[in-house]
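re: that chain from earlier
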Amino acid sequence: MRLAYFDCFAGAAGDMLVAALLDAGLDFEFLKSQIAALGIPQKDLTLKVSQVKRAGLRAVQFIPVITEQHHHRHLEDIKKIINDSGIGEKPKHTALTIFERLAQAEAAVHGKEPNEIHFHEVGAIDSIVDIVSSAIGLDALKIDKVYCSPLSVGGGWLDAAHGRLPVPAPAAAELLKGVPTIGGPIEKELLTPTAAAILTTVVEKFGTLPEMKLEKIGYGAGTLDCEHLPNVLRLIIGESVGQAEATADTICLLETNIDDVSGEIVASVMNKLFEQGALDVYTTAITMKQNRPASKLSVLCEVPDVDILEKLIFKAGLTFGIRRQIMQRSKLAREFVSVHTKFGDINIKVGKLDGQVVNTKPEFSDCLKAADEHKIPVRHVIDAALRAFNRI
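^ sequence. v structure.
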């Protein structure tokens, strides 16, 4: 499994993330061709890369040169640019998710709905380029999981469109809920909202460097040049080692409350959700306002499947809104073993922790089929399958 670890000892900005990806092996000509697929006129954007030093440390600097007049954009404007582009589906989905998180953070700060937000600097071309380029880079370098150090945010004050604001910027602080952060090491803004949105979207876990075999190290330079602090972001890429990396992943929880649809319709939608790849689908009895009995529909799914499953729920007429949460899931490393019983061959799911078997479960569909064929209780088949497994 290919891992990436962002070491943000001097904070992070969108251009620093892209620069680190370039220094770690992302092909610049490929990146330029992908950014051209966004349809931004060439007269408005030129991409440059240079080698620089920060406090004596060599690094790559990524410089989008913008000639477009300052332009405010709404979330829908940015989503259209990305959706209409020719970039790959995976980086497109990642970039859209990042912008949606950023819009939600800005909306929370300003007391508005996400679609009402003017993105100001974030809506400018350079930030679109930073976010899309980061998504493209992680995909192009075939990164399976992303980890990150605690985030250094800096300190003091910054000048923004609405006046002087404390560091970290309010939108960045909103995005950092639940994320380990460190003040300093200098009184400057070191973590931008754009970088906060990127990292809190793509990172599986914040903490120390995971166990891996190091392959590449990239350094992305920021614009700040301090004498005693290398204003760079370090990216470490390598292959995972050990069992632990196979036991965690990131999934999405979709939820909506339903109080005006029959149970038959909900059941049919649940079946379709499973057919479209949902990991689990279930309902919970709830009471809504005015003491109306209702059901909460919950769907667990892989992040790339979010859009198709949401559309399925909306098209079925179940709701006007769906809540989504990106969450980490711990799971046992697993494998399937086929065992022979007097009722036929049965597949058994085997769960392991640190290489040791801690859970076994015969596949119920196999057991039910065998029970029907032999006209016996399904429990007898399950017991026979477990005895056969224990013998091997």
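The first strand starts at residue 2 and ends at 7.
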